[in-house]
Amino acid sequence: MATHRISSRRNLRQGATAVEFAFAAPILFLLLFGAIEFSRANMLVNTAAIAATEAARASIIPGATSDDCEQVCMDELSAIGVSAATVVVEPKDITDDTNQVTINVSVPIAENGYYLPRFFVGRTVRKSVTMQREGKAEDVDKEPSSNNGNGNGNGNGNGN
C-alpha cells in the first residue's frame, strides 16, 4: 500500500513537471531565438560596414570601375549569406579625374534574418564610406579635415 502511494506521487509530480515545461518552453525558445536574431542583426551591421570599406578601398585604385566596387561589396556580403542588398557607387563612372568615391550599402534586416525576422520588419542597415582616390593627394587640403586635437588640422596626430 505504501509503494502505491509513492508511485502515484511520482506520477503526479511528473505531470506537474510537464505542465511547467509547457508554460516555460515558449518563453525560453522566444528568448533563445531572439538572441540569435539580434546577433544576426549585429553581424549584418558589422559586415555591411566592412563590405562598404572594402568596396571603397577597391574604388580608389587607378583603373577601378563602379562594377568592380559593387562586386567586391557583394562578395563580402555573400560571405555571411546576405541575399538582398543594395550597393550604390558615387560617382557611377569613375574616371582618372574623380577625386573621391562614396560607397553606400543598404541591407534589409528582415530579409536576411534567421528565425524571427518580425523583430526587424522595415529595418535596414545603411553604411556609407567615402575615400580619396590614389594620386589625388593634392586635393586633400581642399576638403574639410578633422583636427584630432593637435591644433593644425592635418589629422596625422604628431603635431607636424
Walk me through the structure.
This protein is an alpha+beta fold. It has one domain. It has helices at residues 2-59, 66-78, and strands spanning 86-90, 100-108, 124-132. A three-stranded antiparallel beta sheet has the order 1-2-3, with helices on one face. It is rod-shaped and about 85 Å long. The protein starts with a helix and ends in a 28-residue tail after the last strand. Mean pLDDT is 77; it is low at 143-160.
User: How many structurally independent domains?
Assistant: 1
Q: Give the C-alpha Rg.
A: 27 Å
Number of helices: 2
Which shape, going by the Cα principal axes?
rod-shaped
> In terms of structural class, how would the helical and strand content be classed?
alpha+beta
Number of strands: 3
In terms of quaternary structure, what is this? single chain
**Widest sheet: strand ordering:** 1-2-3
Low-pLDDT regions = 143-160
Helix-strand string: HHEEE
